[in-house]
Structures are given as C-alpha cells and as structure tokens.
Amino acid sequence: MKNESIYILGIESSCDDTAAAVLHNGKILSNVVATQKIHEEYGGVVPELASRAHQQNIVPVVHQALRQANIDKKDVNAIAFTIGPGLMGSLLVGASFSKSLALGLGIPLIEVNHMQAHILAHFIEAEGQSKPNFPFIALTISGGHTQIVQVNDYFDMKILGETKDDAVGEAFDKSAKILGLPYPGGPFIDNYAQMGNPIAYLFTKPKVGAMDFSFSGLKTAILYFVQNQTKLNPNFVEENLNDICASIQHTIVSYLMDKLKNAVKQTGIKEIAIGGGVSANSGIRKALQEAEEKYGWKTHIPRFEFCTDNAAMIAMVGELKYRNGDFSALTISSKARMPFG
Ligand code: KG4
Ligand code: ZN
Prior knowledge:
This protein has two domains: about 5-120 and about 305-325, Nucleotidyltransferase, domain 5 (2-Layer Sandwich), CATH 3.30.420; about 130-300, 2-Layer Sandwich (Nucleotidyltransferase, domain 5), CATH 3.30.420.40. It is built from ten helices and ten strands.
C-alpha cells in the first residue's frame, strides 16, 4: 500500500468554515474554503447559523474541490473528515456528508482530529512549505485554539500546555471589540500595531502554569484601562489607537514567546512549528525570526491557507492514516471535545 497512488478528499466543518480539499500523494491539488460571513454582524460565531451554512455550502464546496483537482469522485480513494473537536452541530454536517459519500462510493472513511491536523499541515507538499523534523514543538494559535504540543512522530504527540479560558485569537478579537474595531479584529489590531509604540501602555501578563495560557484576565484589564482612560478623555481610543494596539499585541506576542521559551527549556527541542490563523500576525512572525537569530531556533510557518481552518490539513492526516490502513467505522460519532490519539 505504501507507494500506491492515492487521492484523498478532505472535509472540514468544525467551526465556521466549510472546506474541502484534494491531495494526491501528499501534494495539494485543490483547497476550497467557504467562509461564513454571516457571523460578522454578530461579532462572533453563532453555532446554530454555522450548522445551517455548512448544510448549504458543503455540496458546492466538495464539487468545486473535485473540479479544481480535475478528478472525478470515482477517482477518490478515501474520505477524510474532521471528527472533532469543534461545534457539535457543525461537526455533524461534515460527518454525515462524509459517511454518506464514503458509503455511496464504497471507499474507506477516515476520522481526523482537527488539532492534529493543524500540526500535520506542515507536511502538505506545496510551494513555500518547509517540513519540520521530528521531534518538534508545535504552537497552534487561532480563534478557537491555543496549544503547545511536543510532536515526536506523526501520531505521537503530547500536549505540553493549553489555554485555561479564551483562545489567543479571541483575546485579539475581544480587545478589538473593546476598541470598536470590526470582527474578527485580530488583523486590524495587527495593522494599527505596526504604526504604534509597543511599550506605550503596560498590561500584566496572566500567570498560569509554565506552558499553559490564560487570556480572560488580560481582556478585563484592557476593558478597565480603556474605560478609565475614556473617562478622562472621551477621544482617548481614537487619538491613541496605534499605541494601544501595539501595546496589546506586544503583550500577547511576548506572552506566547515566554511559553515557547519554557517549552524549549523543558524539552531541549529547538525546532518550532506554528499554525492557526494568528500565525499571520506580524508581531509573532518577527519574534520568531528574532529567536532564530538569537537562540538558534528553527521555525516553520505554513502557507496562510494551511494555517486557518482548511480541509487540506484534514486530507493530509487522511493520507497518513490511509497508508497505515487506519480506517473508521461508519458508526462513529462526532466529538465536541477530544484528546489526541
Ligand atoms: O484559524 P482561524 O482562521 O479560525 C479559527 O479560529 O479556527 O483563526 C482566526 C483567528 C481570529 O481570531 C483572527 O482575529 C485571528 O485568527 N487573526 C489574527 C491575524 N489574522 C487572523 N490575529 C492577530 N493578527 C493577525 N494578523
Ligand atoms: Zn482550527
């Protein structure tokens, strides 16, 4: 089975992106994502609306992925789909569709852990991708996740630390909301931050375990800070937006870097791979580049389309599992929460 030519169709529906992708022997042929705009007006993902949008999007998205890959559904060797973690209603749409398609085509079904997929996205063969060597440290940072993992092999992973409350992307987005910026606010904070002074205002970094994270206290600190300053000067936010954003970003980025340094110190591993939507942040990218020069780290950031929620990463894990003959029964059910393995 090892050298067989295989096509994997990946399907992702864990949150608010409906995605499908085709991989041929690890090489990306198509990667289609329908991002649900409906949530913008609510300032966050509304689970009920997400499930409905997945139902509307999933058939056209899969069609488009097959068309762009220039293959017929009969060419697909297996269907890989996200079993969890994620929003239950959203997961159920992807699972039900994947099961029916696998059954109809008479091909294997492969369940994929979304968090493992974010990490294994580094192994997708595409221009601009650099594959990390085992063992490495993975930092997954997005609107839904904040996790540090020691990766010894494709399916030998150990969580070293994770968030105790909000995800880092939420910290960006909630801070942006306090400042009156649109949702999702992470990219806006990043933009303004690049024109501001990162040490204009000081926010205390939350204290939890060496490799764990907490962001809810930071959000509250920013809220009180803005409320107090606005009482003194109603135009405080407008007049100081760049400096406020730069200070928030600096606090979050140096907090992430502190945790990575702790992970490197504890494990002795200096190869770092990051993923998730927040990997787009210019501050974290710059900090990682500096750490390469200063501490001799080797860092990897996937192409942006493989950082945010996507189905190429699901297909990648699907291919690795396919080669191991690791298939799923049609009776398996979605899991809102799930550990690795
Ligand atoms: O991975 P992703 O697309 O979706 C999930 O959360 O699953 O990540 C989206 C998150 C949002 O919170 C968004 O604000 C954040 O990534 N984000 C950024 C930047 N670009 C996206 N945060 C900070 N700086 C950015 N440049
Ligand atoms: Zn994700």
